[in-house]
């Protein structure tokens, strides 16, 4: 009887957690009222005159293989969306580190902060140093791909391998998109709500094909728009738009020496600020089949895995297609 009661309580708790993930509700600025899939730790940082907290998850395998992988999130997401990936990797023996970059997820949202990919990479490196991890595979998706490339260029001795999953930054956006002041990005972000977020993700990520599972991630961002502190989120989002637009990494990726895997969804045509470009340039921006081939040529020690009929989020859209080449690459000596 006691065992049955415990089972029922666990079941109800699981239902509650599932409900919190899939229901649109007011989320506070640091997601303190949203439960991540794994325990969250915080790294204290003193940066640019502010005391900040950088959240991260350190997921340990039951049977360690001695290898570590760092999973870096995209701009419109946070570390929580790596849950399924982390479970598969730890099952294969990998220790998994999942940071929330400053300005994202459960990490601090600074009032005054000059964002740079160098600073985000340095913050990530400090987590590894704190954990006494001297070598790791660095995996980045979307904007996280730009952080991952910068990290690998800055710390080649630490980046044992590099994995890029539909990364931003494989082209120089400012060549085709007119400069937008931070204030303009900010006022655009202030207008966000669930419908605008869903529409953007539907068209940019999923090619007009919405699945109920995607609502989870739209709600997680849209929940912020219901909070009184949303302007702070919008301001940090505006600053990171400016970061992506003005700090290209494409001109340096030929200097990457780490063995690199490019996992590229072939249906992806997403690009930050694409709607601001001319109609002619909109046709050429975000052409991931071509961008993947170009990166594969520039990064000498790299391999390209094109995923047919997959968009900007391979690990969300079709996990099986995503995880198989990743595990093959990680276990290939």
UniProtKB/TrEMBL annotation:
This is Alpha/beta hydrolase. Residues 1-19 form the signal peptide. SUPFAM superfamilies: alpha/beta-Hydrolases. It comes from Dyadobacter frigoris. Keywords: Hydrolase, Signal. GO terms for cellular component: membrane. GO terms for molecular function: monoacylglycerol lipase activity. It comes from the Bacteria. One of its GO terms (biological process) is acylglycerol catabolic process. Residues 68-318 form the AB hydrolase-1 domain.
